[in-house]
Amino acid sequence: MRPTLLVFVVLLLLSACGGGTPTTNAPTSAPASAPTQAPAPTSAPASAPTQAPAPTTAPAAAGQFDPRAAEPCAVFNPDELAAITGVPLLDAFPGKDRFFATCAYVFNDQDQSNANLGIDLRNPGAEAFAKVIQFNQESGKTVEQIDIGESAAIVENDGEFSLYAVMNGWSVTLYGYKLSREEVIAIGRLLTDRLVAFTPPPAGDVANQPAPQSGALIGMEVVIEEPANMAGVTTLESLNIVSIAGFAMCSFDPAADPFIVTFIARPGEDPPTPVGVFTLSASGGVKPNQPSPANFEVGLGRSDEPQMFAGEGTVIVAADGKSGTFEAGRLKGRWSCTFAE
């Protein structure tokens, strides 16, 4: 079974919905002195394939790639990515709904470095770019303007680099895990003359959504039992979201570093329970059926304006890695995740 490797950033959601974003940590009993904003997740792929299957994506013709119609991973070909990173491509994991086209390109090195591409299918790029850059600046991040496409900037977060750009009218996000600043920029430059011109989607237009890839997250249930002001049952269905990181992500390999379970409700909408943002993250992986230390982050209210609580606690993960329980101060609950075979 292959993992879902779309390590997105909710900043992509912010660009689409106009709010504020993936994460890592849930609450003790009191809020931090000032509500904190959830950082973007920097998780490695949940499991490490032992052999490198040959990616089947084909080269894209310059200026002819239509993100709404094409298979998302076909925008790059393996050889050009390997020429930039110096590492062959191990696999590529596409995703698409009517809002976003995404692809996680995983490289065949020890860290399984990866480049995670997201293209907003509905919103004009300039408008989306302005929102996401404003959010980064207000969050105190260093935003470096660079010369790519119509507009572009690169943002560093805990040693990882994200590129936000407007390419032929499209809003593009490229998040690198274990990739250098120069590699992320070089991959982004490949898109400068590759995409067709952006046009607003027709009313009611829905992009074709492929069948879930093996290992894709197709079901999640997070149950917060205590405290009462956070209690509730959250599922992918109740959130009305697609199972890509930045909306939801769930590790299923106990050795994953970090081991992560997270969901983020759609910005600008009331979540189905009091909690709009939830993340548990265990650095170094976890030991099945044994208490393992973890960091938690929980946001009450809408995900773009959450009241954040952060703390440390423990998780006990089942042997198969797909469910478990958690506790951090007054916070208590459980989760389970389902993956496509």
From TrEMBL:
Signal sequence, start to end: 1-26
Domain of life: Bacteria
Record's compositionally biased regions (Low complexity): 22-62
Alphabetic keyword roster: Signal
Entries under PROSITE patterns matching the protein: PROKAR_LIPOPROTEIN
Chain residue ranges for the region called Disordered: 22-63
Protein name per UniProt: DUF4367 domain-containing protein
Protein's organism: Chloroflexus islandicus
